[in-house]
Amino acid sequence: MTTNVDREVALPNLMHASAYVNGIPHDLFDYIRSQPGLFWFPVEGPITEHGGVWILTRTKDIREVDGDGERFICGLGLLHPMMMPMEDTFMGDNLMSMDGARHARVRRVIARGFGPRMVAGFEPWIREIVTETLDELVATKGPLDYVPAVAAAIPSRVIARILGVPLEDRPFIVRITTDLFAATQGEAGQDVVANLTRVFQELFDYVETTLMPLKREHPGQDMSTVITQGFDAGEVTLKEALFLHQLIMNAGFETTHTTIGRSMWLMLEDPEIERKTWAALDEVGSGLVVDEFLRYISPVIHFVRVAAVETEVAGQKIRKGDQLAMFFTAANRDPETFTDPHTFDPWRNEAGSLTFGAGPHRCLGAPVARLQVQILFEEMAKRNIRLRMAGEPKRGYSNFINAIAEIPVEVISGS
Amino acid sequence: MTSTSCNPERGTDVPKVTLHYPNGEVRTLSVDNGQSVMKAATANMVPGIIGECGGELTCATCHVFVEPEWLDRLPGQEQEEVDMLDLTSEEPTECSRLSCQIVMSPDLDGLVVRLPKTQR
Ligand code: HEM
Ligand code: FES
């Protein structure tokens, strides 16, 4: 069963943030994908039931697993190190760790706010946010950090607006979003659960005592109103309602932040990518360009599922309780799905990317995420904004987000 | 309607659904009794129906427009389906259904649906 014994170099622990400090090890994923069946990766300690994890790198295998919420469940954990029955933890009320009928009931409450036609109506105010952010950017003299200035600024403003958080509370929401993400990334020995619980409590106090009462009094066209009404109608419990607020903040922030930050980093580091980006924006428009950045970057590295039954995937027998790590980042470089997968090609028009996952948990925010980044590129092209690198960019530290911490830049042109 | 088993052209008891594409293309899809149109479409890799959530009523990527004369014969709509129709990529009409909720039965043999231009 162990298929990686013949490999000479020591494998980094793919389930741990330390494997991603220098970038995504695509050569390693290519190797794993080229092996027959599924790849077994041993993990020490009690995190796994059977002493390891199945590493999934092919589009086909991940679609099969992610698409089948009956055989492969979320309720026993989604990420290392928190692999345990989620119901016994505070994460039991989080949509992402729910399964079956309960998941469908809770998901429908927020799904209402996220349909493509609904999101198309967000376009004018997202463009306003992008325009303001770019005004601030071009007005800055000298070097600046692109991450807080643009990559974090746009999604945090968009999320605050989607939730319907009043302007004066937006700095609080931005801080909580950052703290939440930091808390999931505890070093070994650190108590991730305790850290998260503390930040959650701060957020939940705010949502329960300030935001939800506000939405009852002044309902708006926003997600907090949708969730509050769902709670008042008995469709979700209070805890579920609180966690939905948290999920929208978490899921929508770091991912979009990574997309915006990493796309700029790539352009400034590789003139060929920059040239292709501006040319393709002109020729085929922002949709394909952004889809290609999303594929190439794959902001979410992986999520885990646990087999609820004994079964088989890619000819490999899977025991009940086995963990399967779905590496979206590797599937997005699967040569069976994409020609020349390691080349950035914004003209490619190939469907099948797993950037937003697949199946019952597929990202609800995909249209909002795409729209923000598309508008950003459109406005930058229109205003002829060009930057250059002004220092050493830094990656973040995460085992599931292709995270970016810092990108020192300087504006060289644009109005 | 002709009886399925007596129709020599079908040669099988499996009911058929006709799919009309926006570009004028027409396809026939066999759907087993008890199976949903979405499941049959995705199992046969028929384009135009994605069925992302596998029929859990949480994605709205299995949208179809049912030909009006068939509407009344379809199984009823639950509130969840009505809610999810708000989320379809293409504007729904009175004929809109989510095909994961259209479960095949012998009297639906010959059903005709039109596909939207986009599903997401
Ligand atoms: C580029 C940006 C984004 C990426 C790459 C991304 C990616 C993902 C992925 C991979 C999943 C898990 C899918 C699966 O398990 O199959 C997910 C779930 C989710 N995302 Fe996103 N996401 C992004 C932006 C957003 C935004 C902006 C929002 C909301 C404002 C959002 C809300 C959600 C929610 C609510 C879920 C959980 C759905 C469920 O469990 O049913 N995401 N996202
Ligand atoms: S398949 Fe998802 S709603 Fe029909």
Automatic annotation (TrEMBL), chain A:
Say yes or no: keyword Oxidoreductase present: yes
From the UniProt record, list the coiled-coil ranges.
none
Keywords annotated in UniProt = Heme, Iron, Metal-binding, Monooxygenase, Oxidoreductase
| Residues making up the signal peptide according to the UniProt record | none
PROSITE patterns found in the cross-reference section: CYTOCHROME_P450
- InterPro entries to which the protein is assigned, alphabetical: Cyt_P450, Cyt_P450_B, Cyt_P450_CS, Cyt_P450_sf
Tell me the protein's name.
Answer: Cytochrome P450
What is the originating organism of this protein? Actinomadura physcomitrii
